[in-house]
Protein: DNA-binding NarL/FixJ family response regulator
Organism: Streptomyces umbrinus
Amino acid sequence: MVVDDHRLLAEALASALKLRGHRVLAAAAPAAGAAELVITRAPEVCLIGTATPAEPGIFDPVVRIKRERPQVAVLVLGPVPNPRGIAAAFAAGASGYVRHDERIEGVERAIMKARAGEAAVAPQLLQGAFSELLNPAAQPDDEGQRLLQMLTPREVEVLVRVADGEDTRLIAAGMGIAPSTARTHVQRVLMKLGVGSRLEAAALAARTGLLDRAGPIQHPASDAGSEV
């Protein structure tokens, strides 16, 4: 089975494999429904295409396929990956990784290896993946950047104000919004960060460096008797 976001690529690869004597059950392109399609048809080998092998969660369909149909050998079809991408594919349960620009003979060899239970990946790609796993690059700010990307600019401002100790009324006044809207923003921030309180949100933001990345905000002048 060949499943890829680009229908033309999927159909071309399926046709080439048919000409070489393989029985291809389907050539489809539903990105979100790839796992369901493979689980339903249960082929011996499935080639799943991806354009972004390093994107978080991109191999979730592979995880699901291997959980529900462990007998299906999954080959990832994608661009030249960075080491983290190839490592993530194998960690998800893939039997191999085939580059988009691979010749049909190479694709066929990968299929045969996968069917035999062997790892199907070019030696240089595998070497790069092992090197990255053994000597990972230090990226201390990754978590803060990931969290920052989850929030809208307005939610980032809300989080900074929460970390500064502002209550709902002060947040609303400082941002020029209704208290109910401010409360909604706060709850959305807590949900996205996966925490249960404002204190936890502030601690997480400080620990990951998110507050440093967000930068300062302009606080409006307040009366001496303002509540905090």
